[in-house]
């Protein structure tokens, strides 16, 4: 689908070339998209931008959208209560999308608060509407509150898959898998470069469940063995393709993983080793299903992004993987009065060769946008740098670990001492 799928700057004009095609050819183009990619519509292919070599994701966690203007805000200052509704959540979406111009929006669950919604489908349509209105490709997973209204978990996920510009998928075909909304998306390199047919960035989406279904275990759900098997097989086949097919690459394309409920490993950090804040406990499942180990073993995952705990918004690195919260986005969700609702931005940068051609991913950065007066940007940091992940350089008889230091407002990276 070449140019049609070329997102980025050309995105808004993406329909135009289609309209100019003769009808027969148009049918052929449409036909090509039918089948496995059917639901993905005109936004089937995600791609890095040519001018900047970037791909930017805005993560929206926990909108808790219900009935719109009749649904009040929670945990805002007394002075902010009057006139504060779900529509403030909508307004924040528009603000952050305008400011960041993302290539993909990822909604990481509790998109709606089913229990307070009269019509789950309508609530979901209203919640996602700004992304559709702004013609942004988007993907979603479900949390533990989406299904509490008029739709089941399966129903909510099917609805998300069917919505306009949705890149969400229900589940991989032909296998038995737990949950609803386990899928992956590939992000191709810049068009017209040797990487334009390769997925240089892999995005994985999983359903982390709602509540434990095992009587003897209380609390939240977890990512089950069937999902982990699918994840590992998907990761390994993507890696094999990336490294064995021309132009062959020496290390796997980075992977980013999105789901709702934090893993128990999110408890591994203190303020000494995370960026952001921890203002509440880590509400993971009460048992560890091993998904963190699966990610470490897979070898390509550089960061995992969750929501669920609205007033935690940190990223911390464990065993080479950044574990990141987004912080709560929605106004009809618990929060902390006076502590701004927020979104996480993830910006992935390609490497440029000496002759000016974009290649694979060089770095992954993140920051947060606050819904305050100035839409403040905070906590900018580098999540990953090519070659920095515990890579060991050997020179002569001694061995040294490459150290990177984060500097500057946008976390420009400097190599502190490279032998
Ligand atoms: C909610 O939106 C209203 C209407 O735009 C605005 O006046 C108010 O300041 C917003 N409240 C918050 C907490 O952002
Ligand atoms: C973070 O620092 C604390 C001590 O402040 C330490 O106990 C913990 O192991 C560290 N975690 C990681 C992931 O480095």
Explain what the structure shows.
It comes from Miscanthus lutarioriparius. Belongs to the metallophosphoesterase superfamily. Purple acid phosphatase family. Its main location: secreted. There is one protein chain. This protein has about 425 residues and is α/β, with parallel strands linked by helices. It folds into three domains: about 1-40, no CATH class; about 45-385, Purple Acid Phosphatase, chain A, domain 2; about 390-419, no CATH class. Helix content is about 20%, strand content about 25%. The chain is built from eight helices and 18 strands. The strands form four sheets. Strands 1-5-6-7-9-11-10-8 form an eight-stranded mixed β-sheet, with helices on one face. The chain has a six-stranded mixed β-sheet with strand order 4-3-2-12-13-14. A two-stranded antiparallel sheet has the order 15-16. Strand 12 and strand 13 (about 360-370) form a beta hairpin. Helix 4 (about 85-100) runs parallel beside helix 5 and helix 7 (about 225-245) packs parallel to helix 8 (about 290-300). The N and C termini lie far apart (about 45 Å). The relative contact order is 0.13. Residues about 1-40 and about 390-419 have low confidence and may be disordered. It binds 2-acetamido-2-deoxy-beta-D-glucopyranose (NAG) (2 copies). One 2-acetamido-2-deoxy-beta-D-glucopyranose binds next to loops.
Mean pLDDT: 87
Q: How many separate structural domains?
A: 3
Order of helices and strands: HHHEEHEHEHEEHEEHEEEEEEEEEE
Sheet with most strands: 8 strands, mixed
Amino-to-carboxy terminus distance? 46 Å
Gross morphology is globular
